[in-house]
């Protein structure tokens, strides 16, 4: 059995220990780390070992280049750190002394995203019904949601998460908050969870980024599980405003606002085309995107659309497609 990862931010919170936190800077581990992180402490080898072991079960052999630890160097980062421990103690009081604090992975799109999370928290990085993270012993899904950067690296955050009392929340659920005051967070399986759901109103109090892990896979990955390999798009191209127009009939307004923002960032060259695609996949889901793009190609409307909405969509999408030709934006659709 692996030894526990000790908490460099001080003694363990709430469910583990009721002590207050201390400062969190020091330690050594190789490689460059993302902004806001320092080389990791004595736990670096344990973080690396558990990550590698979790992927080895799927036949994957990542090369870990760096493990960094959250420096909590800014005033706001220290405030979020303190808030995390306050809420951990509060949840522990509500749940018979057990805040159910776990480690969980988050797959990042870039070092810049990690730096933004460290500086500003997770607001703007949760989509749909909340922030989804993956247990420490199951890193594969977070690896799939990560994006290869210009240096060929992927980056994951290992976070401490206050789960409290969990309730069942299926992946296709539209639930966006706890069903009652009896629960604090969601899981995909009550007996053996592979995914945690932290509601949007709690993501900056119940999630604390602690480590960043940078890694890559040997190329090619023959005979192994495929990680984010692109397949051929189901349509030669689809104007992005047309895609947004269709999705706006299906997804909630906050999700559409995020997609529009990421599209604007792409047009202004703040993110790459691949990053844009990955972000849209996370928000909309592959099944919906496949249906929309396939229907666009056939000029048909998905069965879930109402007839009147379908007519509106077809007219709007054709108009937007003509408009969008001026800058040639398009989306390739990737499937797992």
TrEMBL record:
It holds the Pfam family RST. The lineage of its organism: Eukaryota, Viridiplantae, Streptophyta, Embryophyta, Tracheophyta. Gene3D superfamilies: 3.90.228.10. Residues 231-302 form the RST domain. Residues 1-27 are annotated as: Disordered. Residues 21-236 form the PARP catalytic domain. It is found in: Nucleus. One of its GO terms (molecular function) is NAD+ poly-ADP-ribosyltransferase activity. GO terms for cellular component: nucleus. The keyword Amino-acid biosynthesis does not apply. Keywords: Developmental protein, Nucleus, Stress response. The keyword Nucleus applies. It comes from the Eukaryota. InterPro entries: Poly(ADP-ribose)pol_cat_dom, RCD1/SRO1-5, RST. This is PARP.
């Amino acid at each position: 059995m692996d030894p526990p990862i000790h908490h460099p931010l001080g003694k363990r919170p709430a469910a583990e220990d009721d002590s207050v936190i201390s400062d969190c800077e020091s330690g050594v581990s190789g490689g460059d780390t993302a902004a806001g992180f320092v080389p990791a402490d004595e736990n670096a080898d344990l973080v690396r070992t558990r990550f590698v072991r979790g992927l080895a079960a799927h036949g994957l052999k990542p090369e870990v280049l760096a493990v960094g630890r959250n420096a909590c160097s800014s005033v706001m980062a220290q405030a979020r750190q303190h808030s995390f421990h306050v809420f951990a103690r509060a949840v522990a009081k509500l749940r018979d002394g057990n805040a159910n604090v776990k480690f969980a992975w988050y797959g990042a799109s870039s070092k810049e995203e990690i730096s933004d999370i460290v500086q500003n928290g997770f607001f703007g990085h949760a989509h749909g019904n909340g922030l989804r993270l993956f247990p420490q012993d199951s890193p594969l899904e977070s690896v799939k949601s990560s994006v290869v950067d210009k240096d060929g690296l992927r980056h994951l955050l290992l976070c401490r998460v206050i789960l409290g009392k969990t309730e069942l929340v299926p992946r296709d659920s539209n639930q966006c908050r706890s069903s009652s005051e009896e629960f604090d967070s969601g899981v995909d399986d009550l007996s053996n969870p592979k995914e945690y759901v932290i509601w949007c109103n709690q993501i900056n109090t119940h999630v604390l980024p602690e480590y960043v892990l940078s890694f890559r896979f040997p190329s090619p990955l023959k005979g192994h599980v495929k990680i984010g390999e692109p397949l051929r798009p189901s349509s030669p191209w689809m104007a992005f405003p047309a895609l947004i127009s269709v999705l706006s009939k299906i997804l909630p307004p906050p999700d559409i606002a995020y997609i529009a923002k990421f599209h604007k960032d792409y047009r202004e060259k703040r993110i790459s085309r691949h990053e844009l695609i990955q972000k849209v996949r996370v928000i909309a889901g592959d099944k919906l995107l496949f249906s929309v793009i396939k229907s666009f190609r056939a000029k048909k409307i998905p069965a879930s659309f109402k007839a009147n909405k379908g007519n509106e969509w077809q007219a709007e999408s054709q108009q937007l497609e003509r408009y969008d030709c001026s800058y040639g934006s398009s989306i390739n659709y990737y499937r797992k």
